[in-house]
Design a protein that fits this description.
heterodimer, A: 489 residues, mainly alpha, 3-stranded mixed sheet, 74% helix, 4% strand, B: 499 residues, two-stranded antiparallel ribbon, 20 helices, 2 strands, 75% helix, globular
Chain lengths: 489, 499
């Protein structure tokens, strides 16, 4: 295990942050501006990918900016877990950037420069969270992500956007200041460090009741993971333009929440400590309630994006559920679901956006018969929903299967039931959309005759992500290799 | 100029400059700005040189005019004092760049008088951070206060009444302090801090000594607007001219807190305050917590940006007083760090206010609508300052709050810890309310004009107001990143022995 000192992690984080400068400067030339965005996203992905071989070989990279507190620095480190998340996020950002161009131009949106600049900052923050070497650095980027996505959520700048933005910051900033910050200081005063260490830093330093308090503080403190009852911001955030909902609120922001919680479980608490104190049950209980609750609410939503948002809330908790099982298969499943769900959910959201561009419809009840007009979009939607439900031959099957095995290994049959029931609920809220699209007859007077597929810049990304749901089922080895390194470093 | 008296040049420059400005300003208004900026730049350069020298060579004591202590005037140029001198001169220079512009607008033909008071005030502050004599603290504090009264009275609206209120409260505070050192003089026969610190532990701890201590401390509490002795501050600070507010708001309360630290640890000792009178310590921390909560709550009720900030200053005073009285190294570190950080945050906020005031007719929240488009740079700087007030890393406000919270947890002062977190949340609400208003173009009431309307013109504040603002915002992040070295090389040495 050799961890090299390198500017690589810094470059991976900073490229999109510095990239805002050319984006802002080319305000008057949209083509140039969008080229910058795509170029930066490609650059970011290549920098991250270039560090992959070392991580697979068991090494890594680190970079320290400044030691700000005794024993705590603002520092970056590339390890398997961070690499896994950063790869997924930066790859999907490329596709989202392309999609954004099609979407924003098709709708002739205002303030596109601000939109692309905020997006780039959010992406820096996301990779920053992935590559944080300690809790303080993670907190820094976590807050940066909340703030940089505020202009995106409130992009419309109307009354609805205002109240959604308020809710967004209240939930995300409020919990991180009121819960995460005290937890972090408590951990520091107990252990004198905040570094992420394999096997945890709290073992032997804190008594059981303190550990339980810390766990609860941190699970709710990272409200981006949308564990009930702190999920309300996510459906509200759906007022944002669809590329924002798809990438940030389907992948980056919410997964930063889950990623942070998983970081805590594996690298601050340590699975050994949680197992000894039997605290995995806290995680699985909270997650199960959220999974079932969110799936039931999703059934009642008519607005497509809101239904997808509730679906996201449920699926996020799968990852926490898997980690909370504290068995090898369960944790593998939880981590695997992070990428499987990312590809599935981004496809669904991109399809929702494509439907909105093509037909200007956002309610499911108005989407009868659209599938025959937009076959590519609906086919992608169908594939992705199968993946989320967990059907073979799609990626989501692997992660759910692994979680079921994990639950059985741990003798927690109740959790098996949770996974299965929830999968049925997933099917119940996804299939009607597809069915209506292909088979229902549109109401008189609003026939979809003149509706065509969305612009090709929108279709390509959603086609690619849908295909990846399939590819990840057939060749999951890269993801599994990285997860292996996380669980047994 | 030899290196052992550079700090005297830093101190004397604004004092001499004050009289030059007054005389030269009579003949040419145009001479005022270059003189003020020149004098303050020189002062900053000298202070920086002293600071670097003290960092490498350690602190020293200096006798003004070779009149030896205990009768002469002694200055103590230690690491903390030197850092404070850099802070005072840095803030003064940054503030004056903006003040030159805003004073030219607010007080056309009284500019030179304004800057005369301004420079004397700065000289007073320089003296305060270096002096090693308890009586000189009184003299210099009055120099700083009386000039501040004058500056406030030059302001808007009811400024004269606010200034008068401040005169009454400030003089009461000064009397308290004077009585306190009177008692000390009777008990010890000296006013030199080092002598006092040597003699006091040998005295019997009786009511006389307790009276001396409490009179000194209460006097300073009035001067720093420690809750519930704060009532003069919001009016005085919101009515004064913007050019004065950018100097007075960041420095006066902070320097007074520094003086409280001097009285508590350079004259008295931790053993006296925290061990012999442990009960008092508990009460003070409790009052500080209460003050933070109440001042934050009052800030919530304000409808004007300036007034909101003045209540936040009162809350921040509670942070620092509480931190010092936590009686542990972490809390003390946090308090001293927060003196620096809060001075910079307040500077940045008031510079932003001053920049906004140059373009908007008032600072009522309603008038701030759509400001992000009109003044993007100003608002960006305001956001950075807001993040620092909330305590978001890597801005400096996060790190001092970190130490304060750590100190609170170690001392088991849960009330204080809770108050700090409450105040962070309130700050988040306060500032995001402002940011939201400035970001959206329409108010909540008029639902008919929703969404993006016609492009308003971009009209940023003049460069002279914008540059110091951007510099202050950058300093918030830069100081945050050097927190480690700052604590390691300066603040660690300022902690009293036995902490």
């Amino acid at each position: 295990m050799n961890v090299e000192l390198s500017y690589g992690p810094l470059a991976a984080v900073m490229i999109s942050l510095l990239g805002t400068v050319p984006i802002l400067l080319s305000d008057r030339n949209p083509n140039l501006r969008e080229s910058w965005t795509v170029l930066i996203s490609l650059g970011k992905f290549s920098i991250i990918a270039s560090m992959l071989p070392a991580v697979l070989a068991g090494g890594g990279y680190r970079f320290t900016l400044a030691e700000v507190l005794p024993g705590v620095a603002i520092a970056l480190r590339v390890d398997a877990m961070g690499m896994y998340f950063a790869l997924v996020a930066s790859f999907l950002w490329i596709l989202t950037s392309i999609y954004s161009i099609g979407y924003m131009r098709a709708l002739d949106e205002h303030d596109q420069t601000r939109y692309y600049a905020s997006f780039a900052v959010a992406m820096s923050a996301t990779v920053g969270v992935a590559f944080s070497a300690n809790l303080l650095t993670l907190y820094l980027f976590y807050e940066m992500l909340s703030l940089s996505t505020y202009p995106l959520v409130t992009h419309k700048q109307d009354a609805e956007a205002r109240s959604a933005g308020r809710k967004y910051l209240t939930y995300l900033l409020g919990t991180s200041v009121a819960l995460t910050l005290p937890a972090m200081i408590l951990i520091y005063s107990l252990t004198g460090t905040l570094d992420f260490t394999a096997g945890g830093i709290l073992a032997g330093k804190a008594d059981p009741s303190t550990v339980s308090i810390l766990l609860v503080l941190l699970v709710f403190g990272f409200a981006k993971a949308a564990v009930m009852p702190l999920h309300g911001w996510l459906p509200a955030a759906m007022v944002a333009p669809t590329p924002v909902s798809s990438f940030l609120h389907g992948v980056a922001v919410v997964k930063v929440g889950v990623f942070s919680i998983l970081r805590m479980v594996f690298f601050v608490f340590g699975t050994g400590l949680l197992g000894d104190l039997n605290l995995g049950a806290v995680l699985t209980t909270l997650a199960s309630v959220t999974i079932l609750g969110a799936s039931l609410v999703a059934l009642t939503q008519d607005n497509l994006k809101r239904r997808l948002a509730y679906s996201t809330i449920g699926q996020l908790s799968y990852m926490i559920l898997g980690a909370g099982m504290l068995t090898a298969a369960g944790m593998t499943g939880g981590l695997l679901h992070l990428s499987m769900h990312a590809f599935g959910k981004i496809t669904l959201f991109l399809c929702a956006g494509a439907i909105y561009i093509a037909a200007r419809k956002s309610n499911i009840s108005e989407m009868d018969g659209l599938g025959r007009r937009m076959p590519v979009t609906y086919a992608a939607f169908f594939l992705a929903s199968l993946s989320i439900i967990g059907m073979p031959p799609l990626g989501g099957f692997l992660s759910k299967w692994s979680m079921v095995i994990g639950a059985i290994d741990g003798g927690q049959l109740l959790l098996v039931a949770v996974v299965l029931v929830s999968s049925l609920l997933n099917a119940a809220y996804f299939f009607p959309i597809v069915y209506r699209g292909f088979f229902a007859r549109p109401a008189e007077g609003c026939g979809p005759e003149e509706i065509r597929e969305a612009p090709v810049l929108c279709l390509i990304p959603l086609g690619v992500t849908a295909l990846f749901c399939l590819v990840l089922f057939l060749w999951p080895s890269l993801a599994l290799q990285l997860i292996q390194r996380v669980l047994s470093p | 100029m030899n290196p052992t008296n550079l700090h005297m040049y830093a101190l004397a420059a604004p004092l001499i400059g004050a009289f030059v400005v007054m005389i030269a300003g009579r003949y040419s208004r145009r001479a005022v700005a270059p003189l003020v900026l020149g004098v303050l730049s020189f002062s900053l350069a000298a202070a920086l040189a002293v600071f670097l020298q003290v960092l490498s060579g350690g602190g020293f004591r200096y006798v003004v005019g070779n009149w030896l202590a205990p009768y002469g005037i002694e200055l103590s140029v230690d690491r903390l004092g030197s850092l404070m001198q850099v802070l005072v001169s840095g803030v003064a220079l940054t503030a004056s760049v903006s003040a030159v512009k805003s004073v030219a607008r607010d007080l056309e033909d009284r500019q030179h008088l304004f800057f005369t008071l301004y420079l004397i005030l700065i000289a007073g502050l320089h003296g305060l951070v270096l002096t090693a004599d308890a009586f000189n603290v009184y003299v210099l504090l009055e120099i700083a206060s009386i000039t501040a009264y004058g500056l406030i009275a030059l302001g808007r609206g009811r400024a004269v009444v606010s200034s008068f209120n401040y005169v009454i409260m400030g003089s009461t505070g000064a009397c308290f302090y004077l009585l306190g050192i009177g008692y000390l003089y009777i008990l010890t026969g000296t006013l030199n801090m080092a002598d006092l610190a040597r003699i006091i532990p040998t005295l019997e701890s009786g009511p006389a000594l307790a009276t001396a201590f409490s009179f000194c401390i209460v006097g300073l509490w009035i001067k720093m607007a420690f809750f519930p002795l704060h009532v003069w501050l919001p009016n005085a600070y919101s009515d004064m001219p913007d050019g004065a507010a950018v100097l007075v708001a960041p420095l006066m309360t902070k320097v007074t807190i520094y003086l409280m630290i001097r009285v508590m640890f350079s004259i008295f000792s931790p053993a006296y305050e925290f061990i012999q009178h442990g009960g008092v310590q508990q009460i003070v921390v409790g009052v500080a917590a209460l003050g933070i909560v109440c001042a934050s709550a009052m800030a919530l009720g304000q409808k004007d940006l300036r007034r909101m900030l003045t209540y936040l200053i009162v809350a921040e005073v509670g942070y620092m007083v509480g931190g010092v009285w936590l009686a542990n190294a972490q809390g003390m570190t946090g308090a001293i760090l927060h003196i620096v950080n809060d001075a910079l945050m307040t500077l940045c906020l008031f510079l932003a206010v001053s920049a906004i005031a140059s373009r908007a007719e008032s600072l009522d929240f309603d008038r701030l609508r759509g400001l992000f488009r009109r003044m993007p740079v100003t608002m960006a700087a305001l956001v950075v300052a807001a993040l620092s007030m909330i305590g978001v890393p890597p801005t400096c406000g996060f790190f001092s709050k970190w130490y304060l919270l750590l100190g609170g947890i170690e001392a088991g002062q849960w009330l204080y810890v809770g108050a700090l977190i409450f105040s962070s949340l309130v700050n988040a609400v306060l500032f995001f309310r402002v940011i939201e208003i400035a970001y959206f173009r329409t108010s909540e009431g008029d639902a008919n004009v929703e969404g993006p309307a016609a492009e308003p013109v971009r009209e940023e504040a003049p460069a002279m107001m914008l540059q110091p603002l951007v510099a202050a915002a950058a300093a918030l992040i830069a100081v945050g990143l050097v927190t480690g070295p700052l604590v390691q090389n300066v603040i660690r040495f300022a902690l009293p022995a036995g902490m």
